[in-house]
């Protein structure tokens, strides 16, 4: 039977980074708070969109109900404009909350009844995919507004009340091409995110002080080195040795 009390441990002399290195690392890590004012600025931008939403809503109510001088198509365009504002506001919320959670600090709302479902598993890849999907949704709203407007196209152009060109055949084609480019980009991001989860990094299991102590106290045969006949484990300096272990040079 193997003598388990003679299993030696090789002590490491590596004491880790020095004070200067730890100070520099702490300073670099704290620099993430420089992004906090950026997210505060996005909150102000969202407040501007809230005001813009109610301005557009008042124009719709005033033109359709109070004055009665708006057509069904114009009502549809106004509603699409309101939806466009809401979609952009949703995009801002996603960037503010998801970006702050990912790059600045944790938002400790676990267990809150209003916690978004996606916040519990948000990461940089998921955030990029969701942003791409939101951009596609906003682009779809703009494209739908364009298709409604081109219904009154005359001579390949759509003019406003002042005679200025607001839509043209070439412009519509470019809008469709840009929208398709957004879709391809979103599919590429989703594929990259899927591939990153398809081959997860394997976690290497090794000896620890606790597992070694359990091995030494267990009556089962120890895992021994084929050449030396004993277990060699490198531990940080100052670590309390398990019972039955000894230090070798």
Structural description of this entry:
The chain is mainly alpha-helical and 249 residues long. The chain folds into two domains: 4-20 and 206-247, no CATH class; 24-198, no CATH class. Helix content is 56%, strand content 6%. It is built from six helices and five strands, in the order E-H-H-H-H-E-E-H-H-E-E. It has helices at residues 19-30, 36-66, 72-103, 124-149, 169-198, 209-217; strands at 8-11, 157-159, 165-168, 234-235, 246-247. Strands 4-1-5 form a three-stranded parallel β-sheet, with no helix packed on it. It is found in: Cell membrane. Keywords: Cell membrane, Membrane, Transmembrane, Transmembrane helix.
């Amino acid at each position: 039977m193997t003598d388990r009390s003679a299993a030696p441990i090789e002590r490491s002399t590596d004491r880790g980074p020095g004070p200067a290195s730890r100070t520099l690392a702490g300073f670099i890590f704290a620099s993430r708070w420089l992004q906090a004012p950026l997210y505060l600025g996005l909150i102000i931008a969202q407040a501007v969109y809230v005001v813009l939403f109610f301005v557009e809503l008042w124009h719709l109510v005033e033109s359709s109900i109070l004055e009665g001088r708006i057509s069904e198509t114009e009502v549809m365009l106004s509603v699409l404009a309101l939806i466009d504002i809401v979609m952009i506001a949703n995009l801002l919320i996603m960037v503010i909350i998801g970006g702050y959670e990912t790059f600045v600090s944790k938002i400790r709302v676990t267990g809150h009844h209003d916690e978004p479902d996606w916040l519990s598993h948000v990461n940089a890849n998921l955030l990029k995919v969701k942003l791409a999907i939101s951009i596609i949704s906003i682009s779809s709203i703009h494209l739908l507004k364009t298709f409604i407007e081109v219904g009154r196209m005359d001579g390949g152009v759509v003019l406003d009340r002042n005679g200025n060109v607001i839509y043209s055949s070439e412009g519509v084609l470019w809008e469709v091409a840009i929208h398709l480019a957004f879709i391809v980009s979103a599919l590429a991001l989703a594929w990259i995110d899927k591939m990153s989860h398809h081959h997860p990094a394997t976690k290497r299991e090794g000896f620890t002080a606790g597992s070694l102590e359990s091995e030494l106290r267990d009556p089962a045969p120890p895992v021994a080195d084929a050449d030396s006949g004993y277990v060699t484990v490198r531990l940080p300096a100052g670590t309390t040795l398990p019972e039955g272990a000894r230090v070798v040079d």
